[in-house]
Recover the amino acids of this structure.
């Protein structure tokens, strides 16, 4: 297993278009997280899943953002009607459960540029 | 979730020990303290996690006093490659909420 992978690594889109990002977690991990990160800021939590259940989505930035993890494996993050303010790095992380300590593994991120 | 406070930035020289302190006055009983490191254009990387007292691994040590209202990440003998942003996270192990972190700059 090569870790958490995200696709694409870079995306340039025109304002108003929809974009979808994919995250493949480490195979035995059942928790999956999405973050947005802008320059100089820490990763901003968006949502997370345990298996296919979305346990926290109140921090999704607006109703233009949605995430799915239909089979409890890979996940997608969609942004509809993109705006220039959506330009950021979108990060995905996965963790296992069980035990007292949990180490999250992050992907390399998808850098979105809205023009 | 417990609010965390860390210095915005720190400078050090190669070979020195660096201690980064995080304050978390309202830490809850079931909260763990976790530190991550992030290099530019990469996702954060787990460094160390603890609940109380001292934890040490091959990369760092984490010191947590008895009241758990603060914690200190200790990096022994830093090198230029330790230049990064360091985040202190406090919460249940399923809540990964990041603050703005501490930007560590290591000079030759």
């Amino acid at each position: 297993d090569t870790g958490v992978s995200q696709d694409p690594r870079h995306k340039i889109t025109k304002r108003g278009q929809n974009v979808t990002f994919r995250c493949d977690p480490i195979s035995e991990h059942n928790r999956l997280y999405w973050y947005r990160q802008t320059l100089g800021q820490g990763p901003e939590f968006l949502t997370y899943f345990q298996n296919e259940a979305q346990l926290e989505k109140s921090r999704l930035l607006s109703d233009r953002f949605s995430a799915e993890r239909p089979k409890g494996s890979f996940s997608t993050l969609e942004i509809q009607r993109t705006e220039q303010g959506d330009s950021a790095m979108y990060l995905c992380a996965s963790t296992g459960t069980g035990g007292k300590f949990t180490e999250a593994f992050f992907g390399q991120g998808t850098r979105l540029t809205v023009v | 979730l417990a609010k965390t406070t860390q210095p915005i930035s720190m400078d050090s020289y190669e070979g020195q020990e660096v201690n980064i302190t995080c304050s978390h006055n309202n830490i809850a009983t079931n909260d763990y303290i976790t530190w991550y490191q992030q290099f530019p254009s990469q996702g954060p990387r787990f460094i160390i996690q603890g609940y109380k007292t001292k934890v040490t691994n091959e990369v760092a040590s984490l010191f947590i006093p008895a009241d758990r209202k603060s914690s200190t990440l200790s990096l022994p003998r830093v090198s230029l490659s330790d230049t990064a942003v360091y985040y202190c996270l406090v919460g249940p192990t399923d809540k990964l909420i990041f603050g703005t972190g501490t930007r560590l700059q290591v000079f030759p």
